Amino acid sequence: MELLFFFLFATVAVLAAVMVVTVRNPVHSVLALILCFFQVACLFVLLRSPFLGIAQLFIYVGAIMIFFLFAVFLLDIKRTIHQERYSRWASFALPAGIIMLVEIVLLLGRGKFGAPVQEQEAVASLLNLGKSTEAIGAVLFTKYLYPFEIISVVLLVAFVGAVVLTVKSKQED
Amino acid sequence: MIELPNIQLAAIYPEIAVLLLAFVVLAVDFVVPANKKSTLGYLTIAGLVLLLIYMPFAYISNEATFSGMVLSDSYAILFEWIFILAALFTVIHSIHYLKLERIRTGEYYQFVLYATLGMMVMAKGNDLMAIYVGLELMSISLYIMSAIGKDRIRSTEAAMKYLILGALASGILLFGMSYIYGLTGSTNLYAISSSLQSGNNNFLIYTGILLVAVGFSFKMALVPFHSWAPDVYEGAPTSVTAFMSSGPKAAALAIFLRVFVESFHGFEEQWTLFLWFFSAASMLFGSIVAISQKNIIRMLAYSSITHAGTIMLGLLAFNELGIASAVYYMMVYLFMNMGAFGVVIFIRYKEDRGEDINIFCGLGKTHPVAAFLLTLFLLSLAGIPPTGGFVVKFYVFSSAIQAGYLWLVIIAALSTVISLYYYLRVIVFMYMKEPAEGQSVNTTPLQWSAVAISAVFTIVMGVIPAPFMGWATAAVKGLISSFHSF
Known about the structure:
The complex is a heterodimer.
Chain A: H1 2-22, H2 26-46, H3 50-75, H4 79-110, H5 118-124, H6 132-141, H7 145-172
Helix pairs in contact in A: 1-2, 2-3
Chain B: H1 13-31, H2 38-54, H3 74-100, H4 108-124, H5 128-147, H6 153-184, H7 189-197, H8 204-220, H9 228-235, H10 238-262, H11 268-291, H12 296-317, H13 320-346, E1 347-349, E2 352-353, H14 363-366, H15 368-382, H16 388-402, H17 406-432, E3 439-441, H18 445-463, H19 466-484
Antiparallel strand pairs in B: 1-2, 1-3
């Protein structure tokens, strides 16, 4: 039963991701991306991590994608440019994509991920569904403290960078 | 009760120092008026020089700390020297250049520091997680830096290309890392290594290793993942290009060597197959395409692709000499590349950057010192004795011959011969032709001294290589011991 749901969510997620790049209207692309993120959130729930699922919804769908949508509305992208670029590269990209897909399917069919995931077991003691937030918090501030702190610098850089690249043009005009 | 991890704070003192310096620059930026932003540059230089004075006393240990995320061994410290020097040279070359280009963004200096921090995190990373986070910190800072010359369309185009291709490469790298994690159950490099050693691997691991190699190769600009490099190098402000072609390349090499030597050494036979191809293609393609370049920055971009391919010979050889000489190559490359860019930065054409090769005509008559220094750096890049460029090529080639890569060395020699043509062409233009109109040298004493230091090191590393090679060999000992014990 769980497997059925996994395949349902996974298939829709991949289809939505394909739609993001194939749909002509950019607004539809954004909507397809929202659908894709929704499915990923569902996958997190299936993995017994409701907190990550909710965070995915709040942050990606709730905050980031809505800004994306606004940006697309404001940009007024011309559709003609969009079409030209497809026809130019489709004849190369399509065969390459198909070969890649066949390779992935072949590899996944023959190999398998059989890793004993020790860390998950260690976390599992903490992890009954209600406590997944606690478990994530615990590893985030102990085991993954260092990458966590560096990520905060990455956010600062993105923040300052966005200001630098947008505000500067006003000064010069 | 939450168990606290073992933390050795001293292992990340240099990182903390760079971050604090960036914060000081950020704070001072608010009180400095728009026409005095160069103050921030001098502040950054002062901070980086202090850090260089601290570096000989940096904490060195072979024990990983921060739950195995940070490994402050002598290998990481050696690379941190390279990064800090790259940042220092970049800032020195930037201050006057930014004025000439009318870029008044004080934040520029911060991004140099953030990118340096990212590179340091990569070099010290002993866990795929830390390595990836450092890589993103470096890349995002570089995207912003290459867009900072925003009045020029080319700068924005360069940043856009770099961002999109860089994001794609990050995606491929993460995909590969997820395969490795799925197969070994850990992101720690030692844990991955011991899990892979225990056998029982299925061939999905090859896919993982290949994807990780592709991600790293993109950052090193190896063929066929080089296509961003010439456009980004040309479009970005030249001072940023100088930084991009030395610091991040060294950081990519640092993680390439660490991950492949520490974790994937059991699969040498498999990964040498495709790295052989990346290396050979880079050496041939880079040198052949560089011949037709009329723009000196594009030429240096293709030359950097060639050099990246040559450096990979050291990893392919996969012996102590090879890996040490790859590290030594990077040290020499820092000085000769920074020197060449340092001279190119201050050659101006009327009000613009002098990048067309014809602008260098007759430089030997009008500005003999600049022409002499550029000649020196180009000869070193070409690999002519007695410069450092010759010695490192010699070391790398001999290590590859030791390991039996005869054909690859023949290709490398061929590419060196081809590359002589385009390096020498600039020199011929400078000394044999009549001076070009509108050409001028616009620089500061500080820039002269930085270029002079680069020149001194380029020669010293060629004449007395032993101490530097000894340092590199000692630094890679720790890496190598991880696979010799098997």
